[in-house]
Design goal:
Length: about 260
Amino acid sequence: MRLALGVSYSGTAYQGWQSQSSGQTIQDKLEKALAQFCDTPRVSTLCAGRTDAGVHGLMQVVHFDTELERDPYSWVRGTNRYLPSDIAVQWAQYVPDSFHCRASATGRRYVYVLLDSIVRPSLEAGRVGWVYRPLSEDAMHQASLHLLGEHDFSSFRASSCQALSPVKTLRHIRISKHGAYWRFEFEGNAFLHHMIRNIMGCLVTIGQDHQSPDWMREVLQAKSRDAAAPTFSPDGLYFAGPVYSSEWGLPDTTPAFDWLP
């Protein structure tokens, strides 16, 4: 049987999603908890979108195959018993064997939260990015329009990126301000390694009037990482989850991120 899980986590204390020899990753902690709940030596999971060290997950979706039959909520409660407090399974759902959490996704969503303050974050440390110079919403919005649609995003691609193609489609970028906090929402068919953080570096550069909005088009057309701004902090980046067709019958994978600034 194939089981899908919706998982949320704070990435501050971890070395990203993907399993490492240190055991200090989200995948390592989740698989260890599942193995304890299933009373088996090993459970192997796949995820909808790997996250880097320090990046958070609002609605990560994973799947794995198991012979253990339990009520879906028993999987939630039982797995969470063995997880650290900053990782939690939100829901569990049996799915057809043809479902694949990554390949079946038709899109992915990210949110970046940024504190605009002359004083660095304290209570929000690790949960928000930070700028201490004012940002222009209009300039960032105009710059973001150059990124919408299908493009070669090589200028925003990490050198370690393993994607087969740099061509991706950005469907939606929304920028809004809530008090001292900026929220940047992104949706696309897929994303390259560090793509959002590299876009954020450029948006902040433009928002602080170090470059014009049209510079974003120049960076995009250059198809060179050297043309873009430095990679921005992972602290305020949240994987907001994959998008699936209703045919899979999954619970709503839209994350409840209204609590974010």
